[in-house]
From TrEMBL:
The gene is uppP. Catalyzes the dephosphorylation of undecaprenyl diphosphate (UPP). Confers resistance to bacitracin. This is Undecaprenyl-diphosphatase. It catalyses: di-trans,octa-cis-undecaprenyl diphosphate + H2O = di-trans,octa-cis-undecaprenyl phosphate + phosphate + H(+). Its EC number is 3.6.1.27. Pfam families: BacA (PF02673). Bacitracin is thought to be involved in the inhibition of peptidoglycan synthesis by sequestering undecaprenyl diphosphate, thereby reducing the pool of lipid carrier available. The chain crosses the membrane at residues 12-36, 48-65, 86-108, 114-132, 202-220, 232-253, 265-281. One of its GO terms (cellular component) is plasma membrane. It is a multi-pass membrane protein. The keyword Phosphoprotein does not apply. Belongs to the UppP family.
Amino acid sequence: MTESAWFYLKALVLGLVEGFTEFIPVSSTAHLLILGDWINFSSGDNKVFEVVIQFGSILAVMWIFRGRLWQLARGVLSGEREELMFARNLAIAFLPAAVIGALAIGFIKSLFHHPGIFVATLVVGGLIMLWVERKPHFAKHADDTVASQHATAYSLEQITWKQALVVGFAQCVAMVPGTSRSGATIIGGMLAGIQRKTATEFSFFLAMPTMLAATVYDFYKHGAVLSDQQLLGIVIGFVAAFVSAMIVVRAVLNFVARHTYRPFAWYRIGLGAVVLAWLYFR
Protein backbone atom coordinates (compact mmCIF):
# COMPACT_ATOMS: atom_id res chain seq x y z
CA MET A 1 0.00 0.00 0.00
CA THR A 2 1.35 3.42 -0.92
CA GLU A 3 2.14 6.11 1.61
CA SER A 4 -0.81 8.21 0.40
CA ALA A 5 -3.19 5.26 0.72
CA TRP A 6 -2.02 4.70 4.32
CA PHE A 7 -2.60 8.39 5.04
CA TYR A 8 -6.17 8.23 3.72
CA LEU A 9 -6.88 4.99 5.61
CA LYS A 10 -5.68 6.60 8.84
CA ALA A 11 -7.85 9.65 8.11
CA LEU A 12 -10.84 7.32 7.66
CA VAL A 13 -10.18 5.57 10.98
CA LEU A 14 -9.78 8.87 12.82
CA GLY A 15 -12.98 10.20 11.26
CA LEU A 16 -14.91 7.18 12.51
CA VAL A 17 -13.42 7.63 15.98
CA GLU A 18 -14.36 11.31 15.93
CA GLY A 19 -17.98 10.57 15.13
CA PHE A 20 -18.24 7.90 17.82
CA THR A 21 -16.68 10.07 20.56
CA GLU A 22 -17.86 13.62 19.78
CA PHE A 23 -21.13 13.37 21.68
CA ILE A 24 -20.09 11.31 24.65
CA PRO A 25 -18.12 12.99 27.45
CA VAL A 26 -14.78 11.31 26.80
CA SER A 27 -13.10 13.99 24.64
CA SER A 28 -13.02 13.33 20.94
CA THR A 29 -9.99 15.61 20.57
CA ALA A 30 -7.98 13.55 23.05
CA HIS A 31 -8.90 10.38 21.17
CA LEU A 32 -7.93 11.92 17.83
CA LEU A 33 -4.59 13.23 19.03
CA ILE A 34 -3.63 10.17 21.08
CA LEU A 35 -4.68 7.69 18.40
CA GLY A 36 -3.12 9.86 15.71
CA ASP A 37 0.18 9.75 17.58
CA TRP A 38 -0.05 5.98 18.07
CA ILE A 39 -0.66 5.30 14.37
CA ASN A 40 1.81 7.99 13.28
CA PHE A 41 -0.75 10.20 11.55
CA SER A 42 0.67 13.61 10.69
CA SER A 43 -1.97 16.25 10.04
CA GLY A 44 0.41 19.21 10.20
CA ASP A 45 1.29 21.66 12.94
CA ASN A 46 -1.95 23.63 12.53
CA LYS A 47 -4.13 20.63 13.47
CA VAL A 48 -6.80 21.74 10.99
CA PHE A 49 -7.78 18.11 10.37
CA GLU A 50 -8.68 17.49 14.03
CA VAL A 51 -10.80 20.65 14.18
CA VAL A 52 -12.58 20.50 10.84
CA ILE A 53 -13.67 16.86 10.85
CA GLN A 54 -15.57 17.53 14.07
CA PHE A 55 -18.04 19.54 12.01
CA GLY A 56 -18.89 16.34 10.15
CA SER A 57 -20.28 15.04 13.42
CA ILE A 58 -22.17 18.29 13.93
CA LEU A 59 -23.78 18.00 10.50
CA ALA A 60 -25.09 14.60 11.55
CA VAL A 61 -26.77 16.23 14.56
CA MET A 62 -28.20 18.96 12.36
CA TRP A 63 -29.72 16.32 10.10
CA ILE A 64 -31.17 14.33 12.99
CA PHE A 65 -32.62 17.47 14.60
CA ARG A 66 -33.58 19.12 11.32
CA GLY A 67 -37.25 19.21 12.34
CA ARG A 68 -36.42 21.02 15.59
CA LEU A 69 -34.10 23.41 13.77
CA TRP A 70 -36.83 24.21 11.26
CA GLN A 71 -39.24 24.81 14.15
CA LEU A 72 -36.69 27.13 15.75
CA ALA A 73 -36.15 29.07 12.53
CA ARG A 74 -39.89 29.49 11.91
CA GLY A 75 -40.48 30.45 15.52
CA VAL A 76 -37.78 33.11 15.49
CA LEU A 77 -39.02 34.59 12.21
CA SER A 78 -42.61 34.67 13.47
CA GLY A 79 -41.61 36.10 16.85
CA GLU A 80 -42.66 33.14 19.05
CA ARG A 81 -41.48 33.88 22.58
CA GLU A 82 -40.25 30.39 23.48
CA GLU A 83 -38.23 30.03 20.28
CA LEU A 84 -36.78 33.52 20.66
CA MET A 85 -35.69 32.64 24.20
CA PHE A 86 -34.12 29.40 22.99
CA ALA A 87 -32.23 31.23 20.23
CA ARG A 88 -31.14 33.89 22.75
CA ASN A 89 -29.83 31.21 25.11
CA LEU A 90 -27.83 29.56 22.33
CA ALA A 91 -26.28 32.92 21.47
CA ILE A 92 -25.45 33.61 25.14
CA ALA A 93 -23.86 30.17 25.54
CA PHE A 94 -21.91 30.55 22.29
CA LEU A 95 -20.38 33.98 22.94
CA PRO A 96 -17.85 33.18 25.72
CA ALA A 97 -16.12 30.48 23.66
CA ALA A 98 -16.26 32.64 20.53
CA VAL A 99 -14.49 35.53 22.25
CA ILE A 100 -11.95 33.51 24.23
CA GLY A 101 -11.32 31.17 21.30
CA ALA A 102 -10.56 34.06 18.96
CA LEU A 103 -8.17 35.64 21.48
CA ALA A 104 -6.38 32.49 22.60
CA ILE A 105 -6.51 30.18 19.58
CA GLY A 106 -2.71 30.09 19.24
CA PHE A 107 -2.20 29.06 22.85
CA ILE A 108 -5.01 26.49 22.65
CA LYS A 109 -3.52 24.89 19.53
CA SER A 110 -0.10 24.73 21.23
CA LEU A 111 -1.59 22.49 23.92
CA PHE A 112 -2.41 19.90 21.24
CA HIS A 113 1.30 19.02 21.11
CA HIS A 114 1.55 18.00 24.78
CA PRO A 115 0.02 14.53 25.38
CA GLY A 116 0.74 14.82 29.10
CA ILE A 117 -2.03 17.40 29.37
CA PHE A 118 -4.53 14.73 28.32
CA VAL A 119 -3.70 12.64 31.40
CA ALA A 120 -4.67 15.45 33.75
CA THR A 121 -7.78 16.56 31.86
CA LEU A 122 -9.09 13.04 31.33
CA VAL A 123 -8.64 12.01 34.96
CA VAL A 124 -9.77 15.28 36.53
CA GLY A 125 -12.78 15.42 34.20
CA GLY A 126 -13.72 11.87 35.16
CA LEU A 127 -13.46 12.67 38.87
CA ILE A 128 -15.64 15.76 38.44
CA MET A 129 -18.26 13.71 36.62
CA LEU A 130 -18.30 11.16 39.45
CA TRP A 131 -18.67 13.98 41.98
CA VAL A 132 -21.53 15.61 40.09
CA GLU A 133 -23.39 12.31 39.73
CA ARG A 134 -23.09 11.75 43.49
CA LYS A 135 -24.69 15.07 44.37
CA PRO A 136 -28.11 14.41 45.92
CA HIS A 137 -29.99 17.08 43.97
CA PHE A 138 -29.64 15.11 40.73
CA ALA A 139 -31.71 12.07 39.83
CA LYS A 140 -31.14 9.34 42.42
CA HIS A 141 -31.63 6.38 40.13
CA ALA A 142 -29.95 5.53 36.83
CA ASP A 143 -33.28 5.13 35.05
CA ASP A 144 -34.78 8.46 36.18
CA THR A 145 -35.99 10.51 33.23
CA VAL A 146 -37.11 13.50 35.29
CA ALA A 147 -34.78 15.64 37.33
CA SER A 148 -35.23 16.08 41.04
CA GLN A 149 -37.14 18.93 42.56
CA HIS A 150 -34.08 21.20 42.67
CA ALA A 151 -33.54 21.12 38.90
CA THR A 152 -35.47 23.86 37.16
CA ALA A 153 -35.13 23.17 33.44
CA TYR A 154 -36.86 20.05 32.15
CA SER A 155 -36.93 21.13 28.49
CA LEU A 156 -34.91 23.33 26.15
CA GLU A 157 -37.54 26.06 26.37
CA GLN A 158 -37.25 26.25 30.17
CA ILE A 159 -33.52 27.01 30.23
CA THR A 160 -32.82 30.49 31.62
CA TRP A 161 -30.23 32.93 30.31
CA LYS A 162 -28.19 32.46 33.50
CA GLN A 163 -28.09 28.69 32.99
CA ALA A 164 -27.11 29.21 29.35
CA LEU A 165 -24.26 31.50 30.46
CA VAL A 166 -22.97 28.84 32.86
CA VAL A 167 -22.97 26.33 29.99
CA GLY A 168 -21.15 28.88 27.82
CA PHE A 169 -18.33 29.33 30.33
CA ALA A 170 -18.17 25.55 30.81
CA GLN A 171 -17.57 25.29 27.06
CA CYS A 172 -14.58 27.60 27.44
CA VAL A 173 -13.02 25.12 29.87
CA ALA A 174 -13.38 22.46 27.17
CA MET A 175 -10.93 24.33 24.96
CA VAL A 176 -8.18 22.56 26.91
CA PRO A 177 -7.55 19.30 25.01
CA GLY A 178 -8.89 16.24 26.78
CA THR A 179 -11.61 18.07 28.68
CA SER A 180 -14.47 17.17 26.29
CA ARG A 181 -16.75 19.87 24.93
CA SER A 182 -19.86 17.74 25.35
CA GLY A 183 -18.79 16.62 28.82
CA ALA A 184 -18.06 20.15 30.04
CA THR A 185 -21.28 21.64 28.68
CA ILE A 186 -23.47 18.78 29.91
CA ILE A 187 -21.97 18.74 33.40
CA GLY A 188 -22.02 22.55 33.48
CA GLY A 189 -25.69 22.47 32.56
CA MET A 190 -26.46 19.92 35.26
CA LEU A 191 -24.67 22.04 37.87
CA ALA A 192 -26.71 25.03 36.69
CA GLY A 193 -29.94 23.10 37.27
CA ILE A 194 -30.73 21.59 33.89
CA GLN A 195 -32.03 18.02 33.78
CA ARG A 196 -29.46 15.58 32.36
CA LYS A 197 -31.21 14.71 29.08
CA THR A 198 -32.12 18.37 28.46
CA ALA A 199 -28.52 19.43 29.18
CA THR A 200 -27.36 16.84 26.65
CA GLU A 201 -29.74 18.14 23.98
CA PHE A 202 -28.69 21.74 24.66
CA SER A 203 -25.05 20.67 24.34
CA PHE A 204 -25.84 19.17 20.93
CA PHE A 205 -27.48 22.37 19.71
CA LEU A 206 -24.68 24.54 21.10
CA ALA A 207 -22.15 22.44 19.20
CA MET A 208 -23.64 23.59 15.89
CA PRO A 209 -22.60 27.29 15.93
CA THR A 210 -19.46 26.54 17.93
CA MET A 211 -17.97 23.98 15.55
CA LEU A 212 -19.17 25.86 12.46
CA ALA A 213 -17.29 28.93 13.69
CA ALA A 214 -14.18 26.86 14.48
CA THR A 215 -14.26 25.22 11.05
CA VAL A 216 -14.69 28.48 9.14
CA TYR A 217 -11.97 30.19 11.20
CA ASP A 218 -9.45 27.37 10.72
CA PHE A 219 -10.03 27.23 6.97
CA TYR A 220 -9.74 31.01 6.76
CA LYS A 221 -6.44 31.00 8.64
CA HIS A 222 -4.81 27.86 7.24
CA GLY A 223 -6.77 26.67 4.21
CA ALA A 224 -4.36 28.19 1.71
CA VAL A 225 -1.38 26.23 3.06
CA LEU A 226 -3.03 22.80 3.08
CA SER A 227 -1.73 20.32 0.54
CA ASP A 228 -4.01 18.35 -1.78
CA GLN A 229 -3.35 15.25 0.32
CA GLN A 230 -4.31 17.05 3.53
CA LEU A 231 -7.49 18.42 1.94
CA LEU A 232 -8.56 15.00 0.71
CA GLY A 233 -7.74 13.54 4.12
CA ILE A 234 -10.00 16.14 5.72
CA VAL A 235 -12.82 15.26 3.32
CA ILE A 236 -12.47 11.54 4.10
CA GLY A 237 -12.37 12.16 7.85
CA PHE A 238 -15.28 14.59 7.61
CA VAL A 239 -17.53 12.07 5.82
CA ALA A 240 -16.52 9.25 8.17
CA ALA A 241 -17.31 11.42 11.19
CA PHE A 242 -20.73 12.26 9.74
CA VAL A 243 -21.61 8.60 9.18
CA SER A 244 -20.45 7.35 12.58
CA ALA A 245 -22.11 10.26 14.40
CA MET A 246 -25.42 9.41 12.72
CA ILE A 247 -25.20 6.04 14.44
CA VAL A 248 -24.18 7.36 17.85
CA VAL A 249 -26.34 10.44 18.55
CA ARG A 250 -29.70 8.75 19.14
CA ALA A 251 -28.00 6.01 21.15
CA VAL A 252 -26.45 8.67 23.40
CA LEU A 253 -29.80 10.37 23.99
CA ASN A 254 -31.45 7.05 24.80
CA PHE A 255 -28.60 6.14 27.16
CA VAL A 256 -28.58 9.38 29.15
CA ALA A 257 -32.36 9.21 29.56
CA ARG A 258 -31.91 6.03 31.59
CA HIS A 259 -28.37 6.06 32.99
CA THR A 260 -25.85 8.30 34.72
CA TYR A 261 -22.51 9.38 33.27
CA ARG A 262 -20.52 7.22 35.69
CA PRO A 263 -19.42 4.67 33.03
CA PHE A 264 -17.92 7.48 30.95
CA ALA A 265 -16.21 8.92 34.04
CA TRP A 266 -14.49 5.60 34.81
CA TYR A 267 -13.56 5.22 31.14
CA ARG A 268 -11.87 8.64 31.21
CA ILE A 269 -9.91 7.75 34.33
CA GLY A 270 -8.85 4.41 32.83
CA LEU A 271 -7.81 6.03 29.54
CA GLY A 272 -5.83 8.64 31.45
CA ALA A 273 -3.96 5.84 33.23
CA VAL A 274 -3.25 4.09 29.91
CA VAL A 275 -1.91 7.31 28.37
CA LEU A 276 0.26 7.94 31.43
CA ALA A 277 1.74 4.44 31.16
CA TRP A 278 2.32 4.90 27.44
CA LEU A 279 4.12 8.21 28.00
CA TYR A 280 6.27 6.65 30.71
CA PHE A 281 7.34 3.55 28.81
CA ARG A 282 7.62 4.83 25.25
